[in-house]
Amino acid sequence: MPDRMQPTHPVAPTVGGLFVAVVLAAACSSGGSEPGPTGTNGGGGENPTPVQTATGPAGTAVYRYANAGLVATIRLDGEAGTLEIENGTGRELPPPDFYILDGRDGSRVKGEVRDPTSIPDGQMMTFDVSFSGLEIDNIGLVILLMGRDNYGAFVRQ
Fold first, then answer.
1. Domain harbouring 112, CATH code
2. Strand partners, 108
């Protein structure tokens, strides 16, 4: 008569034991500490300091757009500044324009380019720009327009 205490499959005790060992090993190796916050300077204090993401004096900002031979740099100081367009695209570009998205609520703030004109291939032109109703610190995105085309967002430098 066979022994009723024998497992029906010879691997069953090995798999069960392995599972328990893996679970216990994982529980013991955590060290009991929580991972630290990300995006900090690593000071480890109660109130971590955020990593600085932009440079320049307060109230000023520089944004850059570069793609397929077009380089655009907008320098803002308060509510005015300049937009420099370097056209290496191989074709004439329509007059530039821009708008800003408010970083607090996403609302659109119209930018104004003074005396916009087409930019011939191989040329660099600088335009005076302005906007109103938004502080530099509240800028979420600056968007480049060329004629009726939306070229996308500048990157803050």
1. 2.60.40.1150
2. 101
**SS3 label, residue 147:** coil
pTM: 0.65
Reported residue count of the chain is 157
Of 152, 129, 150, give the one whose Cα is nearest residue 66. 152
Euclidean distance between CA atoms 61 and 91, whole angstroms: 29
Tell me the residue range of the domain where 147 lies.
Answer: 61-156
Closest among 129, 133, 75 to 107, alpha carbons compared: 133
* 130 inside domain: yes
Residue 6 is predicted with a pLDDT of 54
Helix (H/G/I), strand (E/B), else coil: 25: helix
Q: Dump pLDDT digits (tens) for 38-87.
A: 444 444 445 444 444 444 456 899 999 999 999 999 999 999 999 999 99
The residue type of 45 is G
**Residue 29: inside a domain, yes or no?**
no
Q: How many domains are contained in the chain? A: 1
Write the pLDDT tens digit of every residue in 9-33: 555 555 555 455 554 455 554 454 4
Backbone angle region of 11, left / alpha / beta, with phi > 0 → left and psi within -120 to 50 → alpha: alpha
